[in-house]
Design brief:
By secondary structure, this protein is mostly helical. The protein has one domain. Helix content is 62%, strand content 0%. The longest helix is centred in the middle third of the chain and has 34 residues. The protein is elongated.
Length: 109
């Protein structure tokens, strides 16, 4: 992988980190406890509880992705960056641009 490709991936990772960080902040707001004294109907309360559960799952997945992106950014200057962690074959640039947190090729993932 050449320097230009790594720079493209670095920029993509930084954009993804920025986006994921914003999403985490929004989701944390959306997963605040629902006050029992809030004046909403029974059905609306059930919907709010369901939405909270969905947002909590999304928050968890986004936090994991953020950690993987940060690890990829720290690892990008290593000599073996862009090689599959399992088979040691190069991960295609297209995959790294779409999923910059990838550490495995398509076959091994």
């Amino acid at each position: 992988m050449n320097i230009e490709e790594k720079q493209q991936i670095r920029e993509r990772i930084n954009l993804e980190i920025e986006s994921a960080t914003e999403q985490v902040l929004e989701l944390r707001e959306m997963t605040q406890p629902i006050a029992p004294d809030a004046a909403i109907g029974r059905i609306s309360r059930m919907e709010a509880i369901n939405n909270k559960s969905v947002n909590e799952l999304l928050l968890s997945k986004t936090e994991v992705k953020l950690k993987k992106l940060e690890a990829s950014l720290a690892y990008i200057d290593k000599e073996d960056y862009g090689l599959c962690r399992v088979c040691k074959k190069p991960i295609p640039l297209g995959r790294l641009m779409m999923l910059p947190e990838s550490d495995k090729c398509v076959d091994c993932a």
